Amino acid sequence: MSMEEFPLVLVTEVNAIVGIDLCEALREAGYRVVGPVATVADVEAYLEREQPDFAVIEPWLKDGSCAGTMERLRQRGVPFVVHSVSTPDEPIGRNFANVPWLSKPATPWDVVIALDGMAMETL
Question: Which residues have C-beta within 8 Å of that of residue 43, sequence separation ≥ 6?
Answer without folding.
Answer: 10, 12, 37, 61, 66, 69
